[in-house]
Amino acid sequence: MLDAFTYLADWFTFDICRLASGTRLAEAVHFFIEDTTKIFALLAVMIYVIAFLRTGLDANRIRAYLSGKSRFACYFLAAALGAVTPFCSCSSIPLFLGFTAARIPIGITMAFLITSPSLNEAAVVMFGGSVGWGLTAVYVSLGILSGVLGGMFFDAIRADRMLAVDVVVKPQTCCCGCSCGAEASVPSFRGRLAFAAAETKDIFRRIWLWIFVGIALGAGLHGFVPDGFIAAHLGSGEWWTVPAGVLIGIPTYANVTSVIPITGELVNKGLPVGTAFAFMLSTAAASVPEFVMLKKVMSARLLALFAAYLFVCFTVCGWILNLIY
Asked: Is the dihedral of CA 288, 292, 297, 301 positive or negative?
């Protein structure tokens, strides 16, 4: 099936645009068409399926279920929940507030909050298409591990004492189809199908431009940056390149779906895997807008610790990947 995207890119590049094979422009256009069609097709299927499954989730039941499990299992389950609640603007912060209001330990809420912005089904599909499924499995594993370790850390330092206010969540039904503090009934099968279709359309409306921009930049790197250029200048894997990538990524706010094509092409051009990975995670998971929102419920000290944890975690992950690869 994936060959169909290559044939489509060949047809558009060489038959429609009549570009000469082997030229830099042809390479860039071919890359853009193939990756765009492939990613959008895979995303349509993946997002629809995940959206359908999510309609059967009730946030109150999830919180009750987590509260009855061992602490370590709760960290893992909260991080996994973060990985499948990706795009809706009300899915991360309000669920974080809901967990806090339900007196779920702060470590469990932080495990969710760490994982949610940087790991989702779209990121998995796009990362797999860019760098292969082996490295994608490492990406997923490290994303979940970052959430679990973060949960353990914030529970250990008793971060609940550093919340700015007691969070009160009013009963409401949020736009992602789940309940953020109220009892919610599971919709009918037909309703779940309708929600999945609407969610897929809404998500595409929100991310299509990010994807186009990310793939376009990746195509530019693919077609116009000479092979070996990045490897010659940043490919030595020196220790400082990883924390530098994290420091650059934190203020560089971007949706994870836009930065993955760039990351994949940087790796293909010779940038050390760990350096690229650390930059990608910090760009997606440690944005200034997120900190502004969290300032409403976190003290400045807790926000600083949260940022410091992300910096250390992503840097260590980058160093480990550079050693492995």
From this structure: positive
